[in-house]
Design brief:
Length: 270
């Protein structure tokens, strides 16, 4: 029964955590029994079971409970099969979604060598706009996962494609993640390639794309600043933040109202 398999998947993460804490007593239980079930349920015929399996996998990766060898030899091959050009549409959409979500949890080498080539292919998927939209929405996370060299060599050309996609939702998604993409590139690429590209989005024929681009204008401009002098930095969740100087914080530590003024002043000068 699918409901039984779904319920089982929801119990996998807490069991895995228990086995990890009791590893001397159960050194191989997780890898021998639980991991094969998670991998198998990624291709289950029932949609709800697959979704539960995907959520369980992401929790296991987040908790660092899956061995690197299992990721490379068991998980990645399944996702590559599911996201292949001739794969079923529903499976492909799910696979690209989980590839994007897990990229930030894997090593840079694994993402670059195993998942990045397929991600680049999916950015150009002419059959399903849903696949391209997932790629566009998560583009900044993939850039961050692989670093500057791979971003400029492989991802920037794909980003140009998505920014000129015929579907306006794709262009809007690109505008929304523009700052994250820019943050991963060199100042020269930012100036010579991304700036003209951003101007095309801010002049887009679609009102929603233009609106998203204008909302990203300030964050995009901030990527040109020197973080050490401007006090701007990117948080782990990808949002832009302002770090006041240590001198400002210390001198106003007992004056909450002044702290607000300091932050406002920093924001205005930035």
């Amino acid at each position: 029964e699918p409901t039984v398999r779904t319920e089982l998947m929801e119990q996998i993460p807490p069991i895995a955590i228990f086995l990890q804490e009791s590893r001397p007593k159960f050194p191989t239980a997780f890898f021998e029994y639980l991991m094969p079930i998670v991998v198998r349920y990624l291709t289950d015929v029932n949609n709800q079971v697959r979704k539960a399996g995907q959520e369980a996998l992401l929790i296991l990766l987040e908790q660092d409970l899956v061995a690197q060898s299992d990721i490379e030899n068991k998980v990645c091959p399944i996702l590559l099969d599911l996201s292949a050009p001739d794969s079923d549409d529903e499976y492909k959409v799910e696979a690209v979604n989980i590839i994007c979500k897990m990229a930030s949890m894997l090593s840079r080498t694994t993402v670059e060598h195993m998942l990045l080539p397929r991600f680049c292919e999916l950015c150009s998927d002419g059959k399903l706009f849903q696949v391209r939209k997932i790629c566009a929405a998560n583009f900044g996370d993939i850039c961050n996962a692989v670093g500057q060299e791979a971003t400029e060599r492989l991802l920037i050309p794909k980003f140009f494609e998505l920014c000129s996609d015929s579907v306006w939702g794709m262009r809007k998604a690109c505008a929304e993640c523009f700052m994250a993409v820019s943050y991963t590139t060199s100042p020269e690429v930012r100036r010579s390639k991304l700036s003209p590209l951003f101007i095309s989005l801010i002049s887009d024929t679609c009102r929603w794309v233009r609106q998203a681009a204008f909302q990203s204008l300030g964050p995009f401009i901030s990527t040109f600043a020197n973080p050490s002098s401007a006090g701007l930095y990117i948080r782990e969740d990808g949002t832009l933040s302002i770090r006041p100087s240590a001198q400002d914080v210390n001198s106003n530590s007992c004056q909450p109202s002044n702290n607000i003024a300091v932050m406002s002043s920093s924001a205005n000068s930035a």
